Amino acid sequence: MVMNELGHQKRQIHILKVDIEGGEFSFFEELFQSSNNKQSDLPYIRQILFEIHLNVDRSESPCRRAHKLFELFRSQNFAIFHKEANVVNAQNLFEYAMLRLNPSFFISPL
Fold first, then answer.
1. Could you report the per-residue pLDDT of 3-31, keeping only the tens digit for each?
2. Is residue 1, in this structure, part of any structural domain at all?
3. CA separation for the pair 61, 10 (Å, rounded)
4. Residue 48 belongs to a domain with what CATH number?
5. Helix (H) / strand (E) containing 62
6. 36, 53, 61, 88: which could join 22 in a potential S-S bond, CB 3.0 to 4.6 Å?
7. Contacts (Cβ under 8 Å, ≥6 apart) of 92
8. What domain count does the chain have?
């Protein structure tokens, strides 16, 4: 993995920018699956900026796939703090900025 090549294991990464032309779904699934299995080996990522491509995989509804991706972010304590459509293809490309928050932020009072 690139993090190993760059010596970024167990380090804090302030901003991770991801634009991999449709590969973001599998990238984040793998990253967060690894995070759940061996948390101590992965860097702590504070912010993630990425572009989502909704028209890449025709085997699953784009909305369903995006929803699963955002549930994955939520499970890792990330919240959206910015979003915008990409003017190149506003129906299928969107830019998101996610911020990792303290887990207590997501606990609602009774």
1. 678 777 777 888 989 888 877 788 888 88
2. no
3. 36
4. 3.40.50.150
5. helix 62-75
6. 53
7. 53, 54, 55, 62
8. 1
